[in-house]
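Lab notebook, bench 4. Still working through the backlog of constructs that have no structural model yet. Next entry is a single chain of 159 residues. Request: give me the structure tokens for it.
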Amino acid sequence: KELIPEILEYTDLTKEINREEFASVVVKMYEKLTGIEAEIGDNPFIDTERVEVLKAYNLGITNGISETEFAPNELITREQMATMMTRALAKAGIDTKVENIEKFADDELISAWAKDSVYYMSSIEIIKGMGENKFGAKENASREQSLLISIRSINKLEY
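Model written out:
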């Protein structure tokens, strides 16, 4: 599906994914889904100049950890992954509202800001639990998991 961004080519996909790599994955998925190349915009960050990060920031898919820092090498958690993916899908014009869903057994460990996204992605079976009805919100996501949810998003939502 041509969803592997250049930053992940020839890398070990079983390793954990960082913020810069995930921004590249989510922008690639957004552009594939919409058929529109995202715009770069201004760079407020002192720690990255990666085009995909700037595209994700310009779209409102991701934020920095401060007004001037992005923290490109910080690892992404599963709840952060769900939130950024949901934002990308919403920007692509997809209704991401979810109602009346069975909660995960570890629901209390999911941050309040991430719950809607976690349950949306789960409800459409793009991000699945980790077994025993647990989501594993604070666990780091792998490159492989990130690409898998990108592919699932395209397969389920591409018009």
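Notes after review: The two ends are 14 Å apart (CA to CA). The chain has a mean pLDDT of 94. Flag for follow-up if needed.
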